[in-house]
Amino acid sequence: EAQYKRNDSTHWLWVEMLWRDYFRWTLMRHGSALFKAGGLKATEHLMRKAFDWFDSRIGQNYKTGEALAGFIDQLSDKLFFTVITVSDELNAYKVFETLNARGVKLSSTDLLKNYLFQVVNRQDNATLRENEHELNQLDDRWDRLVSRLGSESFPDFLRVHWNSRHKFLRHAELYKRIRDRIRDRAAVFNILREMETDVDVYVALSKPEDELWQSRQRLYIKELRMFNVRQVYPLLMSAYRVLDEADFTRLLRVVSILSFRYNVIGNQPANEQERVYTQLAEGISADRFTTLAQIINELTALYPNDATFRTSFEEKILKTTQSRNRLIVRYLLFKLEGQESGIDYEFESDRYNIEHILPEHPAEGWEEVGDQDHEQFVYRLGNMTIMNAGANRDLGNAAYDVKVPVYSESEFIITQKIAELYPGNWGVSQIAARQRQMARVATSIWRIDQLG
Questions:
Q1: CA dist 274 to 259, 268, 292, 304, 405, Å?
Q2: Is residue 221 within 8 Å of residue 252, measured between CB atoms?
Q3: CA 338 to CA 340: how far, in whole Å?
Q4: Residue 166, helix vs strand vs coil
């Protein structure tokens, strides 16, 4: 300690942080027990695990001073150091704390947190007591934000939050732009308040079961998650702040239908979608768009018209060997069934299976379908329907003439119609014809009248 005291204050700060009361008592008197007793931040659990690992291995393998010294020599030969030059002790403290706890490079979020502390700390007109109080308050509120996000990425939240209120930014630009906008204590606590306003909505957007949503909203949030569409988050976050519950529910329905047409069936570029959504979000925050009708009207550029959607649907292939595709196919087929029967089935129920009419692994009776046709058509939507799980297992890879009587007795209308419309044969032309018919029905299901 004396050696570091004789050097500059930055070196001494580093030593002081290493030997803070918490870690001195933990390491010197109680081993790892206090680490396990609770009270650690989430990021500090990594350090606890590292301590436990080294404590166990060193105790087992290096039982003499000479052996331990040899280990330290070997270790030091393989170490490398990163030097970070900071402007003051507050910066040094926060940077070191983050690096020490996480063992990773600083993200835009880490840099922002450090910058916010720096801005609050440098206010010359504040007393020491006021300054310390505000820094502690900032630290506590930041930790609550991190805790509320849970497994969600803070940099992703920060970007969605910013893009819901300001002009579009990519991750690489985020820290610099926010830093340029925040110059004083008031701006620091303003962005903190805004993040606290938005964090619950952000977390709930990926969790249909969240208590923030009512039942109809949960349905659309679940669809967006299934479609894996997150580009819409800035728009939904911005709209949630200004629309009443009924209009926000209608907007959720609109973006779900749009996502099905644009993303799932159309495979359109997500970067264009993100640009439109974030521009609209910024417009809502700036009060340029204040009603649901205005918002929906601005989505015209992302809405494939009926002819485009129908053409894309007629050619759509979804390989059900992938779990996400399998879920989407079930959802799609049960939507078609609901349109025919008026019954709202639980499409994820284990009671039902996807039936590939032309089997994925055809056996005897499918010789007329060549290998190339099988590869191109087995995962076309027109080749798939829904069945009771038990009946589907019993059919297996049977020939079509064996399947037809079973289809005719199905509880599902869309499956019954296969036997009715195609009683004699099943091949490439029948698959294409059925998919064209499905496309016509789908166009009426996934439709936004205001944009049609």
A1: 12, 11, 19, 16, 48
A2: yes
A3: 5
A4: coil
